[in-house]
Every structure is written in structure tokens, then in C-alpha cells.
Amino acid sequence: MSFLLASIRQTAATCPDKIALQGAEDSLSYAALNQAITQAAEILNNQNILALGLLADNGLPWAVADLSALTADIPLVPIPLFFSPQQILHLLQDARLDGLLTDQPQQVATLLTSANIQFHPAGPCCGLHLIRLIGVAAPVMLPVGTAKITYTSGTTGEPKGVCLSLAQMEAVAVSLRDASLATPTDRHLCLTPLSTLLENIGGIYTPLMAGASSHLLPLQQVGLGGASSLDIARLLQALHQQRASSAILAPQMLQALVMAAENGAALPATLRFVAVGGASVAPSLLQRSQHLGIPVFEGYGLSECASVVALNTPLCNRPGSVGQPLPHVKVSIDDDGEVLVSGANFLGYLGETPPAQPLPTGDLGHLDEAGFLHISGRKKSQFITSFGRNVAPEWVERELTLHPAIVQAAVFGEARCFNVAVLVLRAGFSHLHIESAVKLANQILPDYARVTSWLVASTPFTPSNGQLTSNGRLRRAAIHAAHADALESLFQEQPI
Question: pLDDT tens digits, residue range 417-455?
Fold first, then answer.
């Protein structure tokens, strides 16, 4: 029995008219939501769908579709709107989807036609268009109990599917409900894409378990465009208009909010809990937030652990840490300083063997004397932008060096709102050729992986100057150190 679905039914029975989901124009009471997901689940089951994709903007239909798939016991694959067409096609084929719910049927039809994937419309469902995909390969064998497959934002050109059970996701949602002191009077405003696991669980499941309301506006109405464009005026307007009591922010969004407040913008007095995560947060930014009275609490998690692992709370807060581990998990540190997590781990990557227990996170950190977790960096070269998007620099560098003008490339963007590159120019080419090369690479890459600014290195990366290993791998720290001032200037020249 699903605790989430049982909570919705219970509130529907005791407080049928209470608003469960508020959209831009419409709303659903708990009674109406319970009826909507029951009816939609029947439609999905009648279609005999084995694996369902969901490609849509934030809104009531997204939440209804998600909850209906849980009710129908159909594995759901949320598709981020910021994925490139190539990534979306990879996801459709990798997960062997035979059904797709979307609010952009024409764009989907064009994409499917370009890839020679047969399909046909199957009518409305959940306020979205249901499309059946024909002739897909035999369904991939999913781990027993898979309720959702969430794809990472692309640590390589082909994102990997993380298989999660409903019990794992619900355990996180219960911990978040208790840690945030959620109550039925809360009004959570979703400010990040519902296709990201953190907002999916923290922005829909947690409020509904608390008998609260979740406010789901189109991303443009809350100021978010793509993976890295932010209109802080719209974000502030949405917080005020919806009288939000809680929200989830990426670090770059928090920085923009703080800067707006420091420049005189009024902050909503209704806010009581703002979670920030997805990438590292500068301690100075948290201090500025506290000075302004923003109730912000840093956390840490990863998709493989069904999102949040540790979180600061109103009752237990240590700025500079990512909080204490939540009750449903156990965190330890191995001899190399890598953070290990057990207790709510995923069922496995799609098509791969089950994961190791405890799970190596790839993050370096330590637990202090009070049990607060501190993250010091990534074990490997992957970095996370301030909008919470994973980027493997090797992927971007590969696209850049495909152009004959670029011999070598090193990309940086950890905890920044855009990426920059140090480029080595090939003899016989000019800076204009580099501009063309970067433009061509950016056309291939999704927006969170693109290069916004660059500089040309005066010398190549070589073993002799310590910027290249003997087997040809970049020494990133050395390259960054050699160009630190110039790189910082590039970051400072760009607007938020």
C-alpha cells in the first residue's frame, strides 16, 4: 500500500474541498485530485502501457500524470525539458517507452518522425496528449519494484536511467515532511522543473503527505528558462502572489534572490522554509541570506539515493554543512574520504546489475562531531553548475576539439551559472575560428553544458608544464591555477 496515495485519499475523505494542487488558472481539491488520478490510471491501464514517458512543463497535468502512473503501477520516466533532442531520443529508446504523455505533441511528432519511430495519438489523458509508440523493442528488464526511472542531467552525452521504487521515494518524502516541519497550512511553490527528482518528491509528494497545497506554475511564470536562465523579478512576483511558505532553490537562484533583496526588493513574509541544494553553496551566500531573514537550509542528495540524503532544519542547523543525514539513511566515510550512503539506495541503473551497498557517491566529505555532513568536492572531474546540472567536462571538450581550430580544451563551471573554457589554438587559425568552433559545439550541446566564455591559452597543456599527464589526460587543477585570474574575470564579466 502506498503511503502517499493513502494520504491523498484520507485527506480527500476528511477535507474534500481543501486545495491539493494550485495551477496558473485552475486548482484541484483533494477530492477532485483523488478522482482525477483514479480515472487517469484506468485510461493508462486500458492502454496496456508498459513504460510511460512524461514530457511537459510544470503544472497540474504533470502532477496528475505522475500520481496516475503510481496508481496504475506503470513505471514512469520524467523527461527534462532542458534535454537536447538527441538526449530525448536516447531516453525513449533506452527505456523502451511505449507510451508518452506530453503538452507539446507537434514537437514530439516531429522528433519521432525524424528518428523513424512509428507512433499514433491515443487521445487525452491527465490534461495531456497520450502518444503510443509503435514497434519499440522488447521492454528492458526492470528491477522488481521499479516505479520511476529518473535520468541524470547528462554526465556524458547519454544520460543513465536510475531505477527507483515507490517505497524509496516515499521514505525520502516522509523524512522531508518531518525535517521541514510541514503542516496542512503550507503552500509549497515549485520553482524548479518537476522532471528533476528533488522537486518531484519535495514539491509534490511531501506537501501532499502533509495535507498541504502544492503550487505548480509554468516555469516561465516563475522566471526559469531552460536550465540556466533566470528572471528574478518573475520569481519574486510568484513567491508573493502565491504566498509561498516553502520552496526549493538551486544555489544560483538563491544568489539572485539575495542580490535582489540587497538592492531593495521586498521578500515575502510568508516564507518559512527554503531548501537549497543541487550544487555546493558558498558559506558567504548563506550568511547573507540569514542576514536578510531568508529561512534557507542547505541539503545534499543524489538521484541514486532517491534525492535528499542530508538536510539542515529549523531545529538543527549548522551553516557550512549540508545538514545531518535524514532518518531513512546511514552515511559513512571510507578511507579515501568518499561519502557512502545506505538505506534508500536505488534499484540499479537501467539495464545494469544492482548497485553496490553501501553506495559510493563520488563525493568527498566528512562527518563532524555532531554528525553534520560536510562535502568538500567531487572525487572525479564531473562538476555541478549552480543550477544543479551535472556536467562532465570531457563531453564538452570532445565537442570543442572536433573543430580543427582547437587543439585542446579545458572546461570549468563548478558552482557557476555558466561554463567557461581554456582553449589551445591550432597554428594557422584565428580567434574568429574559435568563435565559430564554440558556436558549433553549443548547437550540439544542451544549454546547461554550453560554453559561454573562453580564453586562449598562451601555451599548450603539456607534461612539461604540469598541465597534462604522461598518458595525455588533463591536469585540471594545474590548468585552472595557471589561468585562475583570467577565468575569474570571465565569470565576473557575465550577468547572473
Answer: 999 999 999 888 998 999 999 999 999 899 999 999 999
Percent of the chain at pLDDT > 90 equals 74
Domains annotated for the chain, with CATH where assigned, are 3-378 (3.40.50.12780), 392-493 (3.30.300.30)
Residues 6+ apart with CB under 8 A from 319: 283, 286, 287, 290, 298, 312
322: left (phi over 0), alpha (psi -120 to 50) or beta: alpha
List, in order, residues 6 or more apart from 189 with CB less than 8 Å away: 215, 217, 222, 238, 239, 242, 244, 246, 247
C-alpha distances (whole Å) from 485 to each of 216, 476, 494 are: 42, 15, 15
31-85: pLDDT as tens digits: 999 999 999 999 999 999 999 999 999 999 999 999 999 999 999 999 998 888 8
Distance CA 429, CA 311 (A): 50
Q: What is the pTM of this model?
A: 0.83
Q: What burial class does residue 443 get, using C-beta atoms within 10 Å of its C-beta: 0-12 exposed, 13-18 middle, 19+ buried?
A: exposed
By CB neighbour count within 10 A (0-12 exposed, 13-18 middle, 19+ buried), where does 342 fall? Answer: middle
Rounded-to-integer distance, Cα 246 and Cα 279, Å: 19
Residues (pLDDT < 50) of the chain are 154-157, 495-496
**What single string gives the DSSP state of each residue in 443-462?**
HHS-GGG-EEEEEE-SS---
What was the pLDDT predicted at 228? 61
C-alpha cell at 136: 519499440
Q: Are 417 and 387 in contact (CB under 8 A)?
A: yes
